[in-house]
Structures are given as structure tokens and as C-alpha cells.
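Methods, example record. To illustrate the input and output format used throughout this study, we show the complete record for Leucine/isoleucine/valine transporter ATP-binding subunit. The sequence lines were provided to the predictor; the line carrying C-alpha cells was produced by it.
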Amino acid sequence: MLRVEGLGIRFGGLHAVKDVTATIPAGQITAIIGPNGAGKSTFFNLISGFYQPTTGRIIFQGQDITRLKTHEVVASGMARTFQTTTIYKELSVLENAMIGHRVRTRAGLLDALLRTGRERRDEQESRDAAMTALTRVGIAAHAARPAGAMTQEGQKRVGIAMALASNPKLLLLDEPAAGMNPEETVSLMALIRELVAGGLTVILVEHKMSLVMSLADHILVLHHGQKISEGVPAQVSRDPAVIEAYLGSHAHGGQMGQATAASAGETPHA
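The corresponding predicted structure is encoded as:
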């Protein structure tokens, strides 16, 4: 589905991401994890076209998309959400989702000003795609409601619907559970699984390790901008390099330790 080869970017003399080579398998949930400052967000921005890499290549569905602009990356079949829910709160839930489909439309400014047949067709296509996306995320009944009146979880679903309306093959979720309580997090996890079961491939950046270990099929671990581990959750959680990065060589608890114990069915130490 997606492969990065020797991917890197420098900001001044600092390597924010350096020489990362990895493969994202199709039809699975891949989590990108690492301590604060590991380069996770920068890596996300590289593969989604927000940053242009200094070195390396990004291959998506057999196509080199390394130098594509953000809207071209979306048009190629990739969409993303953001840690801070970027919705238009004064617009309806439906109107927000329609915005997500606009990358697929053909009408220009003149068409919009003159309300040409092409503009009307594009608008109907956007409306249909938006309703399909809202149905997929379970909020079609709230289509006419102002997006700002939705709960925190509801607004997260609006943001996901905006991404889905562009009809992606690969969905990037930037800290999807940020700001959500445990019950909302469980509900969102179920939605992500449903989307993957429906044919999507998902990459997510997430700090909640209990979520990552129970949700991800595949994990990529970054530290100081470099890949230090990659594999299935059970393998990664026991990797000494990963434990060292999260906890320090003398630590036996903490976030990764608790996630490891939980995945093994153990009770983590207080």
C-alpha cells in the first residue's frame, strides 16, 4: 500500500526524520509510536504532503508521490485528520463532510459564480459522497445539525467523515483519541475497526498505548527521528530498544510497561 525509502527531512541542521524505510501493509491498522519528540508528526506530515522530504522517496499504490502537493496526495487516494479537530463549527455536519469531497470535483470559480450545470452536478456528487461518509461513521441522522453542537466524539466523527468523503484508500488519523474519555475512546476504536473491515487501510499516530496495543495490527516505532522497531504489537512491546526509548534502561513500569503487561494479560505494577 505505502512504502517509504530512506525518508528524511532536516530543519536547519536538525534531522527531524532520518533515513526511515518502512512498509505499510494494506487492509491493516498501523500505529506510529514513539516518545515525545520522536518525529511522529513530522513523519505524518511527510507522507501526507504537508512537508517535502530532504531525502528519500514515498511510494503509494505503486506511484511515486514524493513531490506531490497536498491536494494531489489527497486526489491519489490518501486522506488525513488532525489532532485538533479541524471542522467548521458554524456549518452543518453535512456541509463539513461535503467540503471533504471538493478535491474530487471539476467545477471552477466561474462555474460556482454562474451556477453552471457542472457546478450543480458537482454539488450533488459532493452531497451524495458526504451522506455516504456520514453513514459510515454513524452520524447521518445529525446531518443538518451544526457541527459545533456535536459532542467531542461526534466532532471527531465529523472530521473522519470529511476525510472519507474524498474516497480514500489510505486514512491517516492524527491522535484520534485526543481529548476523549474512555467510553468515547472504545466507541472510536470500534469505528476504526469497522472502516478497516470495509476496505480501508489506516495509519494512526497515538499516545494512548492501551489503545495502540489493542487496536493496531502493525506498529512502527520512531525515536530521535529514526526507526528503531517495526512489527506486530507483541513483538514491538518486548523489543529492548523500544523499552529503552520509552522508559530508560533501569525502568520496569510506565506507559510501555503497562501496555506490555496488559497485552500479556498481566496486572501492571503500580
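Annotations derived from this record:
Residues 249-254, 260-270 have pLDDT under 50 and may be disordered.
Residues 1-77+168-270 form a domain with the Rossmann fold fold (CATH 3.40.50.300).
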